[in-house]
Hints:
The structure holds two protein chains of two kinds.
Chain A: H1 5-32, H2 43-98, H3 104-125, E1 128-129, E2 132-133, E3 145-147, E4 153-155, E5 163-167, E6 170-173, H4 178-182, H5 185-196, H6 203-256, H7 260-282
Antiparallel strand pairs in A: 1-2, 3-4, 5-6
Helix pairs in contact in A: 1-7, 2-3, 2-6, 3-5, 5-6
Chain B: H1 6-30, E1 40-46, E2 50-51, E3 63-64, E4 68-75, H2 79-109, H3 117-133, H4 138-199, H5 205-221, E5 225-228, E6 234-238, E7 241-245, E8 248-249, H6 261-296, E9 310-311, H7 317-320, E10 322-323, H8 325-329, E11 340-342, E12 348-349, H9 355-362, H10 376-416, H11 420-454
Antiparallel strand pairs in B: 1-4, 2-3, 5-6, 6-7, 7-8, 9-10, 11-12
Amino acid sequence: MRISNLMLSQKSADRVSSQLSRLADLQDQLGTGKRLRRPSDDPAATAQAMEVRRAAANMEQYNKNAEEAKNMLSFSDSTLGQAYSILAQAKQTALAGATDTQSAESRQALADQVSAQIDSLERLANTRMRDKYLFAGQQVSRQPFAEDGAGNIVYQGDTRLTMVEVGQNDAVAANVPGSKAFGQVFETLQKLRDNLTIGGNPAEIDTDRLKELQADMDRIVQVRARLGERAAYLERTQDKIMRFQEEFSSWTDNLENVEIAKAVVDLKAQENAYQAVVAGTARLFQPSLLDFLR
Amino acid sequence: MPSAFSGIEMGRRALSAHQQAIDVTGHNIANINTPGYSRQEIVFATTDPYTNPSVRMDLTKGQFGTGVMVQAIRRVRAGYLDGRARDSMSRYGAQTQKSDWLSQAENAFREPGDSGLNAALSRFASAWQNVSKDAQNGGTRAVLIEQAQSFANDINSLANRLDRMAQDADSLIAGKLQEANDLTGRIASLNGEIKKVMAIGQEPNDLRDNRDRLLDRLAELTDFVQTDRADGMVTVSIGGTNVVLDDRNTVLIASSGIASGEIGGIGEAKASIQARRAEIGTLAARIVQDVNTQHRAGFDLDGNAGGDFFTAVPGNEAATMAVSADLTADPRKLAAAETIASAGPPPLPVPGDGDNALKIARLQEQKGMNGGTQTYGEYYTQTVSRLGAESRTALDGLDGEKAYLDALSQQRESVSGVSLDEETLNLIRFQRGYEAAARLVSTMDEMLDTIINGLGTR
């Protein structure tokens, strides 16, 4: 093939520039740490990376939801635990009041104790978490247990559940409506107080109140058991989410990021190739026929 | 017998021919770095021989040579390579522009990453999730409105960037068309000059080189069919229209009909950008419609039915969607609740009810796009990966075409390029020829001196 001078210089300029642009690309990859800098770097991997990123964002939200639901459930559980102790005290009071040996005055003292227990229980039932009432169903802005005109404590919330998503098509109720958790407990205690008050009918304690109290306590135990189950489910879900998240993050890493060791080796090889081309170019035009003529 | 002076004439012709040859060599050396220059070659030929008229032909044999003349100065060029190279230049020009523009479009999407629409979709859904858990909370509501507005802004600016790119492509095409028209004008006038030079029997080498350079550039810009004619002119036709005919050109106004070259490439890239832009439009319209429909089905913190969540100009949702001013003014109007406790009047709201917000959050899992087969995210991902794949194809095509074009250019250059070694050799060769011819003249001179001054002076 006939070789012209322009051809030689153009060819080596092309070679230098293509080697240099490969070098620049590798340096950019190393500098950013990214293998995928734009979709065309690998369109299929880009699509995957985007799916994984969305899934990971969902997982993050699910995890946050689960965490908050767990907080609400555990707050409800400990509040119900306190309610249970108050009921246990009330049962002791009832047992004390049910014995025949009590005088009317000492029963009245017990009745005062029951009043105090009702107050404590009411405070518990009206517990707030941040700005919302915990046991109000979804009527969270209104105090769920309040006295009506006749002196009875009535439930003003609703029975709706706040469902929190912890997975696709997987929602967990984060609350317990007050009517479910507390049932007839205020009525029971108010009747107990009336039974113990002077002029009341203490005989009903033995026949009705103790059974009613036991039923209330049993229900709280059951509700707490269910809350515990939900919390355990959330715990398991979070474990699962965490495993997913680890998987996603290594997946994203594989798809998007540069494998540093390999990139460094590639860069070194490319540097050598570049140097070889540049060195070759420098020697390109050294001798010509002109150098050998007088 | 020829005249005694014919030897001097022969020497004169040889001197002149070699002088011209050295000039041609000089022209080649001078243009060693001129792109598009075709080396020129001198063609020597013998002049007409002298036939001795004689009754007895066997007395003086044969014909007398009368020396050398320059038959032609021609450029060395392989015309068949030009056509192939120009086809390749058209494709290369198209791929360069296409890959350039599509890469820019890719940058507008900023994927995969945290600042693209993919992440914004997730953040938008998360904000609704947070409201669904905490519907009575004014702060959470305000955060959602902010997030939704920034989501709308993200879509707006993506749509605007793509729109602007399409406009820029149009104005660039207009500029390149103007350049192409300028080229065809110059090609046409060169046609005229070349025809004139050829008519008087000369070779318009440098004019042809000039025209070839213009044709090369025109090939980068467009794709054309070239017809070479015997009178030296070329006819150039683009998309079936003769844009150069004889020494006149027809001005191109639109890029239609130009399928390749830079102009064709920009056109293709623009079409693809517009297709992706239309997909973003479809996505935005769907999101606006879905969110608004669901939002209207819910109730706000005061128990009133929800209004539109997003406002947008119908048909151009992507560029115009925004959170409704009612909501930005008063986040209580966010219809997060699915129910009300009683219709009233006045209505009694359920402040902790975030079920409608949850439904809106779940819209992102619903396969409502593309005939009910894709979620918002999947549809958007497809748009991005389509763009990426097109851009990848253009880049790969560019690499392949560059290799092919380089090979062709090398071949062209191999035929037409100037080699300094070769020219140096020619220079020596012609110099020696010149010297020898001069010697011939001086020898003749001495011979004549003998005849004129040496004979009969006694």
